[in-house]
């Protein structure tokens, strides 16, 4: 299993929206960056990811699961763009902010810390373990 981070502006699509979709989940559509798209193409059903509120809050607030692998993005006719479907798994007990990540030993190389603009990014097993602990949940 691989781990990922999905970024969304909470006033557009936040954790509460994701939770409200229940087990049906939601397409992670609208991504128009090749690196982020390629990350989604690498995902497998069962992979887990962090749900990150960008712009407002700048914090990891929960864990999501990939429930459908990469398929054409239903919001465009352009065949270059794909998306996965994710569902909410559990919230963090404590949100983990970008600032928290920047000062946490072991997260110096995390993509979130070094490339804050990439909307879908990989997370290493060690980063996953550290961030889950910071958020008060089991890895």
Concise structural overview:
By secondary structure, the protein is α+β, with helices and mostly antiparallel strands. The protein has five helices and six strands. The chain has helices at 15-20, 34-41, 98-103, 111-114, 125-135; strands at 3-8, 26-27, 48-53, 59-72, 82-97, 120-123.
Task: Explain what this protein looks like in three dimensions.
By secondary structure, the protein is α+β, with helices and mostly antiparallel strands. The chain has one domain (3-135): ph1033 like domains (ph1033 like fold, Roll), CATH 3.10.590.10. The protein has five helices and six strands; from the N terminus they run βαβαβββααβα. Strands 2-5-4-3-1-6 form a six-stranded mixed beta sheet. The radius of gyration is 14 Å and the shape is globular. The relative contact order is 0.24. The model has no long low-confidence stretch (mean pLDDT 97). This is EVE domain-containing protein.
Please give the count of helices: 5
How far is the N terminus from the C terminus?
12 Å
Stretches where pLDDT is under 50 for at least 5 consecutive residues are none
**Count of individual beta strands:** 6
| Shape, principal axes of CA atoms | globular
Q: Work out the helicity level.
A: 25-40%
- Total tally of structural domains: 1
The CATH class, by name, is Alpha Beta
Mean pLDDT: 97
Order of helices and strands: EHEHEEEHHEH
Q: What composes the largest sheet?
A: 6 strands, mixed
CATH topology name: ph1033 like fold
Strand content: 25-35%
Radius of gyration: 14 Å
* Assigned CATH architecture: Roll
Strand order of the largest sheet: 2-5-4-3-1-6
Query: Which secondary-structure class do the elements indicate?
Result: alpha+beta
What would CATH call the homologous superfamily? ph1033 like domains
Protein name: EVE domain-containing protein
InterPro entries: 5hmC_binding (IPR052181), EVE_domain (IPR002740), PUA-like_sf (IPR015947), THYN1-like_EVE (IPR047197)
Domain EVE: 2-134
């Amino acid at each position: 299993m691989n781990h990922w981070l999905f970024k969304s502006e909470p006033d557009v699509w936040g954790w509460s929206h994701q939770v409200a979709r229940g087990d049906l989940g939601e397409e992670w559509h609208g991504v128009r960056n090749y690196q982020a798209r390629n990350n989604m193409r690498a995902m497998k059903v069962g992979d887990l990811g962090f749900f990150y509120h960008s712009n407002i809050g700048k914090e990891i607030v929960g864990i999501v699961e990939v429930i459908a692998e990469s398929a054409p993005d239903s919001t465009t006719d352009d065949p270059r763009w794909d998306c996965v479907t994710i569902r909410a798994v559990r919230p963090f007990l404590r949100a983990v902010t970008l600032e928290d990540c920047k000062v946490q030993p072991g997260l110096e190389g995390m993509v979130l810390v070094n490339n804050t603009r990439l909307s879908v990014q990989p997370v290493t097993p060690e980063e996953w373990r550290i961030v889950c602990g910071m958020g008060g949940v089991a890895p």
